Amino acid sequence: MAAVLTSMRALFAPAPAFVIDTETPADVVAREALLDRAMGADRRKKSSEKIRRDRIPAEGLALVARDPSGHVIGTVRLWNIEAGVSREGLVIDALLLGPLAVDAAHEGKGVGAALMRAALMEAKKRGHGAVLLVGDAPYYERFGFFAEKTQHLVMPGPFARDRFLALELVPGWLEGAAGMVVASGRKLSRPSMLPRAA
Questions:
Q1: Please, which contacts does 186-193 make with residues 24 or more away whose CB atoms are closer than 8 Å?
Q2: Where are the domains of the chain?
Q3: In Å, what is the CA distance from 29 to each residue of 34, 70, 72, 156?
């Protein structure tokens, strides 16, 4: 009888308001339109964008939130970076998170938090040691991001020091990290616009 009741509840349970999914090539146009609406025309001028330009997100770390109809209502990507060097002079591999955006019609429904948790869980599962971002400290502190781990790191171009935050997925990963944050991920390959020779 208990199994029947459980099945009946599942049958009449409301559909989830959104699901977290891996981004696909078919999502790119909707993702870019969402980012333009959420972040404005100046979004491509930010320091973080200089690191992301002409790069591919870290393997398995481009996620979207979809509404029940399958439309993209949220997005987050993480990018491979070098977060300066250690005291011993070794390059410190890490990830740069961003942008994280949610469609205005779906704000306040937990979409951004779900994307963050899914991205961080996947990054940890894939063996990454730390995640950096530039963002609103009061929002990101609830996920464990703080400015103290980035105090000796710098972003290319202007950035707000109090908004430059990090989370260690492996304790001590950023210990002694100092220097410039630079891109280290795979480069975007652009097909040649010239016709091929026969």
A1: 186/55, 186/56, 186/80, 187/54, 187/55, 187/56, 188/54, 188/55, 188/56
A2: 16-183
A3: 9, 14, 10, 27
Sequence letter at residue 113? A
**Length of the chain, in residues:** 198
Beta bridge partners of 77: 62
List the chain pLDDT tens, one digit each, 198 residues.
554 444 445 455 555 789 999 999 999 999 999 998 988 877 766 777 888 888 999 999 999 999 999 999 999 999 999 999 999 999 999 999 999 999 999 999 999 999 999 999 999 999 999 999 999 999 999 999 999 999 999 999 888 999 999 999 999 999 999 999 999 989 988 644 444 443
Classify residue 87 by burial, with Cβ atoms within 10 Å: 0-12, 13-18, 19+.
exposed
Class of residue 109 by CB neighbours under 10 A (exposed 0-12, middle 13-18, buried 19+): middle
What CA–CA distance (Å, rounded) separates 115 from 112?
A: 5
Domain 16-183 has CATH 2.70.50.60: no
